[in-house]
């Protein structure tokens, strides 16, 4: 019948690819061809022993490759084998049959106590499936399949167990376990947005390599924010071109201005915000998929005088190959006095402002130090703290990316000068 194109990617080495190819012989009568998306594990003439054609796709971005393949193949189905998956010897042919009323079949991936759903079989003539995100729009490559699944409606998906699939056991490091914990959050079912209302604003300057990850993390939420504002502060890289592709998204408002620093940029957005609260997201950071849901949960119990909600920060280090390494959790603590704020070990965050309080103090102060281009977070928190308390809750939904282009890292040495010239008079 030859109605399936099989796609293999995320394999460790040539041996695991060959094992997967051999296991596909169990359904060879269904396989039209096999594509391997890992050019580093080509196995040469060994593919000639199979009863189907095998091709290797030299593509560094699996998301874009999948979109291109799905738009061009002629078979009725695409089968995904991922991360060293292979068929067991007890595979039943009925295992690879998709309900005629469903578009996608998923299987669970068990890693320790975590369970992550992965696409297994896709009907290619399902015209209402969203495209796969580019790897460059995700916090790390392992998020590709769970992130894509989170864009689908429940009625499109049918889930099966792993009886017909096996995987080579791997040891997972603490760093990898933190990624896995993050990925499980994509499994959370979508819910209707609840009160109080919440917007997110992002000020971008020359973060073209990262800003789309920040923006997509706002959109791939199980509870949607009421609106997302992105303002480009006169970037000289390709940020504006990248961001312009998101202009037509119904929840995204894209603005541009001449370069003037983050405080001025956020102040330009502030009059457009009509929600009760607004969360600040740096252009090189990203949110957990359940961030809006968790933040709204804590906002429901926020004491009336409090003007800012904040929690913990999860830290990642950018690597030279484009990935990230988990560094650890920066646990927040209550701020009860001025000295608590200025001696805070790291930027207080995530910062969710009561919009009325932020507008009442005139927004983010543009201080004389460095023409108002640095430490706007501390300045605005000091002004707000004079009017109302800052409220800490023990939650973690915000991911900080540490990299060499970071404005904070570049200007870390200026903190003492800022403290003496601006904060000391407080």
UniProtKB/TrEMBL annotation:
Keywords for this protein: Transferase
Gene Ontology molecular function: any one: transferase activity
InterPro entries registered for this protein in UniProt: Glyco_trans_2-like (IPR001173), Glycosyltransf_2 (IPR050834), Nucleotide-diphossugar_trans (IPR029044)
Domain Glycosyltransferase 2-like positions: 199-303
SUPFAM superfamilies from the UniProt entry: Nucleotide-diphospho-sugar transferases
PANTHER family linked: GLYCOSYLTRANSFERASE, GLYCOSYLTRANSFERASE 2-LIKE DOMAIN-CONTAINING PROTEIN
Record protein name field: Glycosyl transferase family 2
Native source species: Salibacterium qingdaonense
């Amino acid at each position: 019948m030859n109605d399936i194109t099989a796609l293999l990617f995320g394999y460790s080495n040539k041996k695991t690819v060959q094992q997967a190819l051999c296991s596909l012989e169990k359904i060879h009568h269904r396989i039209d061809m096999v594509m391997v998306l890992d050019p580093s594990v080509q196995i040469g003439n060994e593919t000639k022993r199979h009863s189907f054609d095998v091709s290797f796709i030299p593509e560094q971005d699996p998301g874009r490759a999948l979109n291109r393949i799905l738009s061009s193949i002629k078979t009725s189905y695409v089968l995904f084998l991922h991360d060293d998956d292979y068929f067991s010897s007890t595979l039943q042919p009925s295992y690879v049959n998709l309900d005629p009323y469903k578009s996608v079949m998923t299987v669970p991936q068990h890693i320790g106590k975590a369970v992550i759903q992965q696409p297994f079989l896709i009907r290619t003539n399902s015209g209402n499936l969203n495209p796969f995100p580019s790897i460059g729009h995700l916090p790390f490559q392992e998020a590709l399949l769970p992130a894509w699944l989170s864009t689908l409606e429940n009625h499109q998906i049918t889930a099966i167990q792993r009886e017909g699939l096996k995987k080579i056991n791997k040891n997972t490091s603490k760093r990898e376990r933190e990624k896995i914990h993050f990925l499980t959050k994509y499994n959370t079912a979508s819910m209707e947005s609840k009160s109080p209302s919440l917007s997110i604003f992002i000020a971008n300057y020359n973060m073209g390599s990262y800003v789309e990850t920040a923006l997509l993390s706002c959109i791939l939420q199980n509870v949607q924010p009421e609106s997302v504002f992105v303002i480009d502060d006169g970037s000289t890289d390709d940020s504006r071109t990248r961001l312009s592709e998101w202009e037509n998204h119904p929840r995204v408002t894209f603005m541009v201005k001449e370069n003037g620093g983050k405080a001025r940029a956020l102040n330009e957005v502030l009059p457009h915000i009509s929600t009760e609260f607004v969360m600040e997201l740096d252009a090189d950071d990203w949110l957990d998929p359940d961030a809006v849901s968790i933040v709204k949960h804590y906002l429901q119990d926020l004491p009336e005088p409090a003007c800012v909600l904040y929690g913990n920060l999860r830290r990642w280090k950018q690597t030279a190959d484009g990935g990230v390494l988990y560094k650890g959790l920066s646990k927040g603590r209550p701020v009860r006095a001025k000295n608590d704020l200025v001696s805070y070990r790291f930027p207080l965050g995530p910062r969710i402002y009561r919009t009325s309080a932020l507008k009442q103090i005139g927004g983010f102060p543009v201080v004389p130090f460095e023409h108002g281009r640095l430490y706007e977070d501390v300045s605005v928190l000091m002004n707000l703290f004079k009017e109302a308390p800052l409220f800490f809750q023990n939650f973690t939904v915000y991911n900080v990316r540490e990299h060499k282009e970071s404005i904070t890292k570049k200007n870390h040495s200026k903190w003492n000068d800022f403290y003496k010239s601006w904060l000391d008079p407080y």
